[in-house]
Amino acid sequence: MLSQYVEERYAADLLATNTSGVGYLLKQRVADVEEFIEALRRVAAGGTALDPQVVAQLLVRRASDPLERLTARERDVLALMAEGRSNAGIAAQLVVSESAVAKHINNILAKLDLPKADADHRRVLAVLHFLGVGG
Protein backbone atom coordinates (compact mmCIF):
# COMPACT_ATOMS: atom_id res chain seq x y z
CA MET A 1 0.00 0.00 0.00
CA LEU A 2 1.25 3.45 -0.84
CA SER A 3 -0.44 6.29 1.00
CA GLN A 4 -0.13 10.01 1.56
CA TYR A 5 -1.00 9.65 5.27
CA VAL A 6 -0.89 7.01 7.97
CA GLU A 7 -4.33 5.42 8.15
CA GLU A 8 -4.11 3.35 11.32
CA ARG A 9 -7.16 1.19 10.63
CA TYR A 10 -5.97 0.26 7.12
CA ALA A 11 -2.49 -0.49 8.41
CA ALA A 12 -3.82 -2.64 11.25
CA ASP A 13 -6.20 -4.51 8.93
CA LEU A 14 -3.47 -5.02 6.33
CA LEU A 15 -1.11 -6.50 8.90
CA ALA A 16 -3.82 -8.60 10.53
CA THR A 17 -5.01 -10.20 7.28
CA ASN A 18 -1.72 -10.75 5.47
CA THR A 19 1.15 -12.87 6.71
CA SER A 20 3.61 -12.34 3.88
CA GLY A 21 4.28 -9.90 1.09
CA VAL A 22 3.04 -6.88 3.03
CA GLY A 23 4.05 -3.28 2.52
CA TYR A 24 2.76 0.06 3.77
CA LEU A 25 4.84 3.04 2.76
CA LEU A 26 4.13 6.73 2.71
CA LYS A 27 4.40 8.47 -0.65
CA GLN A 28 7.28 10.60 0.59
CA ARG A 29 9.43 7.42 0.58
CA VAL A 30 9.21 7.27 -3.22
CA ALA A 31 11.65 10.19 -3.36
CA ASP A 32 14.41 7.78 -2.32
CA VAL A 33 14.19 5.53 -5.38
CA GLU A 34 16.72 2.97 -4.17
CA GLU A 35 14.94 2.56 -0.83
CA PHE A 36 11.58 2.26 -2.59
CA ILE A 37 12.84 -0.39 -5.04
CA GLU A 38 14.38 -2.35 -2.16
CA ALA A 39 11.04 -2.25 -0.33
CA LEU A 40 9.21 -3.50 -3.46
CA ARG A 41 11.68 -6.37 -3.84
CA ARG A 42 11.30 -7.30 -0.18
CA VAL A 43 7.50 -7.39 -0.45
CA ALA A 44 7.62 -9.32 -3.75
CA ALA A 45 9.83 -11.91 -2.05
CA GLY A 46 7.23 -12.38 0.69
CA GLY A 47 8.77 -10.00 3.18
CA THR A 48 7.49 -6.91 4.92
CA ALA A 49 8.18 -3.24 4.30
CA LEU A 50 6.68 -0.80 6.77
CA ASP A 51 7.25 2.91 6.87
CA PRO A 52 8.73 3.95 10.23
CA GLN A 53 5.90 6.46 10.68
CA VAL A 54 3.32 3.70 10.23
CA VAL A 55 5.03 1.56 12.86
CA ALA A 56 5.23 4.50 15.27
CA GLN A 57 1.52 5.33 14.83
CA LEU A 58 0.48 1.72 15.39
CA LEU A 59 2.59 1.46 18.53
CA VAL A 60 1.19 4.69 19.97
CA ARG A 61 -2.36 3.60 19.24
CA ARG A 62 -1.81 0.14 20.66
CA ALA A 63 -0.34 1.55 23.86
CA SER A 64 -3.15 4.07 24.31
CA ASP A 65 -6.23 1.96 23.50
CA PRO A 66 -6.84 -1.13 25.65
CA LEU A 67 -9.25 -2.47 22.99
CA GLU A 68 -6.23 -2.93 20.73
CA ARG A 69 -4.93 -5.54 23.19
CA LEU A 70 -7.85 -7.83 22.35
CA THR A 71 -7.57 -10.66 19.86
CA ALA A 72 -9.98 -10.78 16.93
CA ARG A 73 -12.02 -13.48 18.70
CA GLU A 74 -12.16 -11.43 21.91
CA ARG A 75 -13.43 -8.45 19.89
CA ASP A 76 -16.10 -10.72 18.37
CA VAL A 77 -17.17 -11.81 21.85
CA LEU A 78 -17.23 -8.21 23.11
CA ALA A 79 -19.30 -7.09 20.11
CA LEU A 80 -21.84 -9.81 20.84
CA MET A 81 -21.86 -8.78 24.51
CA ALA A 82 -22.66 -5.27 23.29
CA GLU A 83 -25.65 -6.72 21.42
CA GLY A 84 -26.92 -8.03 24.76
CA ARG A 85 -26.10 -11.68 24.14
CA SER A 86 -25.69 -14.11 27.03
CA ASN A 87 -22.74 -16.48 27.20
CA ALA A 88 -24.97 -19.20 25.72
CA GLY A 89 -26.03 -16.87 22.90
CA ILE A 90 -22.45 -15.89 22.17
CA ALA A 91 -21.38 -19.55 22.18
CA ALA A 92 -24.14 -20.46 19.72
CA GLN A 93 -23.29 -17.54 17.42
CA LEU A 94 -19.55 -18.32 17.38
CA VAL A 95 -19.99 -22.11 17.46
CA VAL A 96 -17.83 -22.56 20.56
CA SER A 97 -18.48 -23.86 24.07
CA GLU A 98 -19.82 -21.66 26.84
CA SER A 99 -16.62 -22.31 28.78
CA ALA A 100 -14.63 -20.92 25.84
CA VAL A 101 -16.83 -17.81 25.91
CA ALA A 102 -16.30 -17.44 29.66
CA LYS A 103 -12.54 -17.71 29.14
CA HIS A 104 -12.65 -15.04 26.41
CA ILE A 105 -14.68 -12.75 28.67
CA ASN A 106 -12.20 -13.17 31.52
CA ASN A 107 -9.38 -12.30 29.10
CA ILE A 108 -11.31 -9.24 27.88
CA LEU A 109 -11.88 -8.00 31.43
CA ALA A 110 -8.21 -8.45 32.29
CA LYS A 111 -6.97 -6.75 29.10
CA LEU A 112 -9.32 -3.81 29.67
CA ASP A 113 -7.95 -3.46 33.22
CA LEU A 114 -11.33 -4.05 34.84
CA PRO A 115 -10.57 -5.59 38.26
CA LYS A 116 -13.23 -7.32 40.34
CA ALA A 117 -15.17 -4.85 42.47
CA ASP A 118 -18.44 -5.28 44.33
CA ALA A 119 -19.66 -1.85 43.21
CA ASP A 120 -19.09 -2.41 39.47
CA HIS A 121 -20.49 -4.76 36.83
CA ARG A 122 -17.38 -5.47 34.76
CA ARG A 123 -19.27 -6.89 31.79
CA VAL A 124 -21.27 -3.66 31.45
CA LEU A 125 -18.10 -1.58 31.87
CA ALA A 126 -16.39 -3.58 29.10
CA VAL A 127 -19.33 -2.98 26.75
CA LEU A 128 -19.38 0.73 27.59
CA HIS A 129 -15.67 0.92 26.80
CA PHE A 130 -16.27 -0.92 23.51
CA LEU A 131 -19.01 1.55 22.61
CA GLY A 132 -16.85 4.51 23.62
CA VAL A 133 -19.27 5.60 26.35
CA GLY A 134 -18.16 6.94 29.71
CA GLY A 135 -14.43 7.12 29.05
Automatic annotation (TrEMBL):
Spans through the membrane: none
GO biological-process terms attached to the record: regulation of DNA-templated transcription
What UniProt keywords are attached to this protein's entry? DNA-binding, Transcription, Transcription regulation
One GO molecular-function entry: DNA binding
The record ties this protein, via Gene3D superfamilies, to: 3.40.50.2300
- Put simply, this protein is called HTH luxR-type domain-containing protein
Any one Pfam family here would be GerE
Domain annotation HTH luxR-type: ranges:
63-134
Reading the lineage from the top rank, the first entry is: Bacteria
